[in-house]
Every structure is written in structure tokens, then in C-alpha cells.
């Protein structure tokens, strides 16, 4: 077909049109991101209304904040009818919210423990710290126990000696048989802890008494309590969860059955019932006359509870590993534990980091439930403060403070997990 | 030529039980079994000795004795003269009611927030991120207590509704009253009521039974109508117009029945010191319901978001290439695939809600834990039996829900190779 036969052909060139006015720039951005269609416009208007309304309600309340008041009545008197936050309650009850009823002249002990906690966690969390510092992390739990509860230094030392005894037995019997070595180390440590610890620490006390003023468990409260339960539970629930997950995937039917029963039972009941079991029923199950610390009971229950969830998370990671990894480990001639330690678990744990950290966060939030069995966690203290005549009728200020502290911890943990995921990322998928 | 029959069998020596992979598994299991039996025996022995020392026996007969306490919202007939067993049942129903309500609301909030967080709208996506992060990182117990505190401290007392110029007024044309004693809502009432009939769990209302029966019959009739229309369409190729007929079938009988039994709304009204009539939603219920919903909604939002993000972009592009509209793309291509990813974690969130209803203790909601696991235990001193029974009930609920989840998972699983 010839071009001249076509019905119409443009002869002249159209002049270039000017650049669109709003390409880029605020107006174009707003059109794309805020007013893109009628639904989007509606949503934008609604959200802006809500934000402005909240800001209008909050601004005078926050700007009229009263920090120096010793009771709600005094606060209202200063405000003189205006709306305003009464942060005086935080200032007034600050030590209580942090430490519960810990003796005030001993506050340096929990503060020092917390500072050392950061030092002990640093080599675990960040690679930049020299790994020799892990020795301090290993010694830290005993030292922290001594600092917070006081008493003789020799008691935690004697408990640590149990580990030394176990290691010694392991070394001595390792040549005979590995199974025997593990068994003898376990039995040896258990015997040491049941029978020798009291004796040894009493003996050492006579020779060289080093002791701090003892503080009873019922005096510990506030965020100190939440952090004690949270950190201990987190530290213990991960290894226990790994063992349970391995047990659930074990080819030994009895071990598998035990793990499944434990995990499903724990996951089936609310934590609160387990805590009540710890406070009400434990006396039924233990030999008559035994009685042990309420915080210890709670830590055990919280750990068991969290470890069941942890086991499910790690099981997911184990299941996500390609079969080839297991087969490669076997082909290299690694036995079960070596294969798990060197090949399987490093990869499975890496896959399950988000789930593991979520379950840590859940555990930390669940520490608030201890208020139901009479421990004074921050929420229980808030209830106590609100029941006090000075501060009756206050609620937002207290709850905002407590919520903000929990938010900082939990949000921090989730950010750290994102950092860890990025650091450990090795694949190209 | 002799065939190789593997390594020569060695006689069994003692250290082979630990060192030989053929026997080690069995050895470990035997040891584990012994430890299990011994510790179980130790626990049972301790329990028997402790019970004997306290002079108690192990029996569930307390379930048939008189409870002697009141339970505020009770879905089935209950009074303080009822038995402890019935109190436990009422508590269980309360647990299930608040759990079901919270599941519905949390799903609504979660789906809304999850979808909006993915929207192109900048400000809405940011707001939803703030919602999710705030509610996920703060304990649910705190949210429940906050709602309870707001309800009881910031809402007007019933007294404020009284007088010529009241400081508080009812919402929605004088039908809903929000007070510091709870929210009062209008409820359906029947002036020519059909009365009550005795049932297995107590008497039930014949009016609602009649309405349900009529609705079921209507649905049956509509089903027949549609089937008939389908037959005509198959035979003649033309489908008769059915929409107005099915609308009539669905609505007319119920309306007639409602008129016959004198349906009207019973509005709450201020009488004396408090509101009477209508339905009172107690503060404890509202706190538990709202607190659990907003908290779990944040988790569901994340599940929904990750489920939608997990569907590869190629799927929606393929659907567009086939000429499907964006609504149909969502309904026919994206959602069916996303749901497979969303539903399992969604159901475990429902499970969490059900277990977290036990936090109602903080605001005084009378759930299973507060009746069977609380007052009943305190009154009868049967901690062991009460706690055991309560835990088993919770485990049963949880196993039922996870069983349903497994059935669903198997049905929607990708059939590979």
C-alpha cells in the first residue's frame, strides 16, 4: 500500500508539548499517595480528621502536664479546672514502679545488676564485642542472683561448683563411653546440688563470710520483677524449646510421644492456669513440707509455657530445612548430636529467628500475668496506686507510662531480630 | 559365589547398648521410660500423702452440691441454688461467648488494618502501622485494664442522665445509654410471646425458636425455587426471573411471624438509681471484649498482610492478562491463594483469644476460670479436682479448634507431585 493512497496522513510535525506541570513535587505526590481515587480521598479525609481530633484532644492535656504534685487532689487544684496530665503520680511512685518494695537504701544493687546485664548480653548480641567476654556472661546469672536476693556469696558459688563437678565427671568417664559420661555427669551434678551445696556454702561461710543483706522475694516488684522473670524465662526457654522440638521430630516413639503430649498440653491451657497451679497445687505434688520461692515457681512455669511455643517455632524451622541437609550430614559420618549442632540447628534457628523473637516478646508481655498470684508486677502496682486515696481516679498517666516501657522493650527486641536476620542472611533468594 | 551377608554379628556386649547405633535408641527409650514411671510414681505418691495429711479425698462429687454464689451474665438458667457443675457450665458458656465475640471483632479489625496497611494511601498505611506496632508491643492485660478503667472512670453515672438539663444523653435517638455501669442496649421483645419451653440446658425461648424455624423453612423454599429455575433453564435455555420471588420468600414469612408475636424493641429507661430494661453489657464484658479484640486484631493484621504479600505478583498480572477486573482478580485469584496462608495463623489467633479470656479475672468477668477455677475452688477447697477439670476443658477446646484447623489445612493443601 502506498502512503499517498491512505485517506489521511499528517504532513507537519506536532510541536513538543511542555513538560507536565506537576511531575514530582508536592502536589503530584499528594495526588498519587493521598487522593488516588474517591476511596483513597475518603480515607485520607477520615484519617486526617482522626489525627487532628486526637491532636486537639491531646495537646492541651500534654501541655498542661503537672509533674510536681503529691496527690490527684493537689494536681486538680493546680490545674484549676483545665484539662491536663498529672505525671506527678509517676514522679511520686517512680521507685515503686521500678523496684516494688525493695529496700530503698539497697537500690544500687538492682541498678548494678541491670547495668551488668547489659554488659553480659553485649557479647551474645553483637559480634563486635570480643568473644572472651562470654565468660562474664556465663558467670553473670549467679552474680545477679547474689546481688538481687543478697545472702551469702558462697551459695551461688557452690551451685556453680556443680557445673565443675559435672564437667570433671564428663572428662573422666568420656573414654569409657559417651552415654555413660553424660549420665554420670547429670547424676553427679544432681547429687551435688541436692546434698553438697548447703554443706559447702555453710562451710565456706564459716571460713570466710561474704554476704549482702538478704532481700525477700515478696519485696521484689515493679519492672525489676518483670525483667527478672522475662530475662530468666527467655534464657531458659530457648534451650528447652530446642530440646522439645528435637524430641518432637525424634524417631524414637517414646520420646516423640512425650514431647507431643507436653507441647500440646501446655499450648492448650492458658498461662494463668499454670501460674495458679504453681501457687496452689505445687504443694500437693511435692514431698510434704517442701516450700520454695514463689518467684522461682513462676519462672519455672513461665519457662515451661514459653518453651512449648518455642518448640513449635523451631520445629517449623527444622521442617523447612531441605532433606538434603540431613542426608549430607549423615553422609559425612556425623552422629546425631554432631549433625544437629554443626549442620541442622544453625540453619534451622536462623530460619526461625522471627518466630523465636516473637515468642520472646510474648513471654515478656506475659510476665504481667503474675499479678494474679499476688506478685507485684507494674500492673499490680498500678492497681495498688489507683486504690490509694492520694491517687484514686488516675489511670491514663499510669497506664501510658507502663505501656511505654513495655513498648520500648518489645519494639527493641523486634528491631534487633530484623537486624539479626539481615546479619545472618547468606542466601540469595 | 557367596553373597555378602553384611558385617558378622557380634555377641551383645554391655557397652554396645550405649555405643552401637542399633541398640542405642532402645536403651535411651528404656531409660526415659523408667525415669517417667519413677517420677510419675513419685508425684502420685506425694499427692496421696499430701491429701491424706490434709484429710481430703479425690472426688468430683462437689460438682453436684449447691454453689451458693451468683453469676452476673448467665446465658442459661442459673441461680445461687444451682450446683457447682452448672456454675462451671455457665462459666464455660461465658468464656465461649466472649471468645466468639472477640474473634469476630478481631477478625474485622485485623482484616481492615492488614488490607489498609498495604494500600497506596500514604497516611492510612502509616496510621495502620502505628496501630499494629502499638497494640502488638503492649501486653493485652494492660489493654483490658485500660478499657475497664476508661469505662468505669470516664463514663457518666446513670444519675447524669436525670433531670431537666442532664449532663449526659443517650445515643442514637435515646436507645443506647453508655454509663459507668456498662452499656445499655435495646433488645427485641414480644408482646404476644409464645413463652418458654424446657430444654436440656434449661428453658429456651419459643419465640426465637419459631423465628429460626421459619427462616429455615424460607431458605428451604428458596432452595426449591432456585432448583426449579435451574431446571427450566436447562430445558428451555431461558432463566425465569427469581430475585423478587426469593426476596418475598425470605422476608414475608418472618415479617408476618414477627407481627403475629408482637415484635418490638425494649428500650433501656432510667428508673430509680439505674437503667432498667434493655440489655446491659457489663464493664467487665466490654473491657475483655474490646481489649482482646484490639490486641489480637493487630496480630491478625500482620497475618493478613503477609498472606497477601506472599502471593507472587505474576498471579495478579496473569489474571489481568486474562481480562479479569481487579475485583474479580481479588475474589477469584488472590484471595483463594492468600487464604490458604492466612487461615492457619488466624485460627491459632482464635485459640489465643479463647485462652486469653481467662484474663477476665482482672476485671471480674465470670468465665470458666472465675467460676470453676475461682469461687468453686475457694468454697469447696477442691483445688486439685477443680484445676484439673478446668485445664482439661481448656485442652479439649484447644484440641477441637486445632483439629478443625488440621482438617482445613489438609483440604486446601497444594497437591504436589
Automatic annotation (TrEMBL), chain A:
Cell location: Cell inner membrane; Cell membrane
One Pfam short name: BPD_transp_1
Domain ABC transmembrane type-1, first and last residues per copy: 223-417
Signal peptide interval: none
Keyword Cell membrane: yes
Main location: membrane
Keywords, ordered alphabetically: Cell membrane, Membrane, Transmembrane, Transmembrane helix, Transport
Bilayer-spanning residue ranges: 38-62, 106-126, 133-148, 154-172, 179-200, 220-245, 257-282, 294-314, 393-413
Membrane topology: Multi-pass membrane protein
NCBIfam families associated with the record: HEQRo_perm_3TM
PANTHER family assigned to the protein according to its UniProt record, in alphabetical order: INNER MEMBRANE AMINO-ACID ABC TRANSPORTER PERMEASE PROTEIN YHDY (PTHR30614:SF41), MEMBRANE COMPONENT OF AMINO ACID ABC TRANSPORTER (PTHR30614)
Family of this protein: Belongs to the binding-protein-dependent transport system permease family. HisMQ subfamily.
Protein name per the record: General L-amino acid transport system permease protein
UniProtKB/TrEMBL annotation, chain B:
The organism's place on the tree of life at top rank: Bacteria
Residues spanning the membrane: 23-44, 96-118, 130-151, 206-225, 246-265, 285-304, 387-408
Compartment(s): Cell inner membrane; Cell membrane
Membrane topology: Multi-pass membrane protein
Domain (ABC transmembrane type-1): residue spans on this chain: 92-405
Family matches, as CDD domains: TM_PBP2 (cd06261)
Principal subcellular localization: membrane
Keywords: Amino-acid transport, Cell membrane, Membrane, Transmembrane, Transmembrane helix, Transport
PROSITE patterns with a match to the protein in the record: ABC_TM1
Pfam families referenced in this protein's UniProt entry, alphabetically: BPD_transp_1
Family: Belongs to the binding-protein-dependent transport system permease family. HisMQ subfamily.
Listed PANTHER family: AMINO-ACID ABC TRANSPORTER PERMEASE PROTEIN YHDX-RELATED, MEMBRANE COMPONENT OF AMINO ACID ABC TRANSPORTER
Protein name, entry field: General L-amino acid transport system permease protein
